[in-house]
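Students often ask why inverse folding is considered easier than folding. One informal answer: many sequences map to the same fold, so there is more than one right answer. In these notes we will look at a single instance of the problem. The structure comes first.
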């Protein structure tokens, strides 16, 4: 590994240090003479779609000029490995001040839109699962057909959900549309749990590991609340810039349903009860 990593960077390689990674990649800190890099590798996706999608997501957020992301240096394949070489961000635990900055910057990201439709130019991933982003003029249609239905179908295939207990698409759409109404497309991170942001040593917030698309801004906020870990100052700063939806509380659960279904399909039946409770509450 040392030899090919050495050829990836334009300066003298000093040390390769394994870091704790996610479920889809091995992660290394690459220490070189003048800077440090973050290298992600994966043997499960040698076609490199996973890392290519991540690179596109990071670059799209970067070009919005709203919130920082690590710089992408290289993405490619080597033998049976996919890899992504990124800027290494030295980080520290968040405090109320940094959470306030994060909330403000996320709001600016969500106010960034140059589209009148929902979706994205390419498909990507949520964790290791494919995520479709076909364009739609209607957010309720997009959320139903590109998010909920694929995960319900996968849960049935995985024998984690009885297909006869999934509400019809007519019922699902009717309830979604009634709660959501008309919303504006926002550029979303798409998987904003508390492991997908960093606070630089200088206090600057960074987003990492995006699953981007243009969607309803409350989706990102719903994910921040699913597993917790975000200070109240984060939400206060956010809502100073972007007003909350009138059905914010209900939509938090509605949008968490997607992520619970994803976790159900990735990690098993321990997520079924939480997902099923939301289905019964809003769609029966």
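Output (designed amino acids):
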């Amino acid at each position: 590994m040392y030899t090919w990593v050495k050829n990836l960077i334009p300066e003298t390689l000093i040390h390769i240090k394994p870091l704790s990674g996610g479920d889809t990649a091995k992660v290394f800190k690459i220490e070189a003479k003048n800077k440090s890099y973050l290298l992600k590798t994966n043997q499960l996706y040698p076609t490199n779609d996973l890392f290519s999608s991540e690179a596109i997501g990071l670059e799209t957020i970067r070009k919005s000029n709203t919130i920082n992301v690590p710089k992408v240096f290289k993405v490619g394949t080597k033998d049976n490995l996919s890899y992504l070489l990124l800027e290494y961000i030295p980080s520290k635990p968040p405090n109320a001040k940094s959470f306030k900055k994060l909330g403000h910057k996320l709001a600016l990201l969500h106010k960034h839109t140059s589209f009148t439709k929902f979706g994205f130019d390419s498909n990507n991933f949520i964790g290791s699962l494919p995520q479709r982003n076909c364009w739609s003029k209607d957010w309720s249609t997009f959320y139903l057909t590109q998010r909920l239905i694929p995960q319900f179908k996968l849960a049935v295939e995985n024998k984690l959900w009885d297909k006869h207990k999934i509400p019809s698409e007519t019922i699902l759409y009717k309830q979604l549309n009634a709660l959501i109404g008309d919303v504006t497309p926002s550029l979303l991170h798409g998987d904003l749990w508390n492991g997908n942001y960093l606070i630089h040593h200088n206090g600057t917030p960074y987003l990492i590991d995006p699953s981007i698309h243009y969607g309803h801004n409350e989706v990102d906020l719903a994910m921040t609340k699913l597993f917790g870990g975000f200070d109240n100052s984060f939400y206060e700063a956010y809502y100073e810039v972007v007003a909350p939806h009138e059905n914010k509380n209900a939509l938090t659960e509605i949008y968490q349903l997607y992520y619970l279904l994803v976790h159900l399909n990735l990690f098993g039946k321990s997520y079924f009860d939480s997902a099923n409770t939301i289905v019964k509450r809003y769609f029966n």
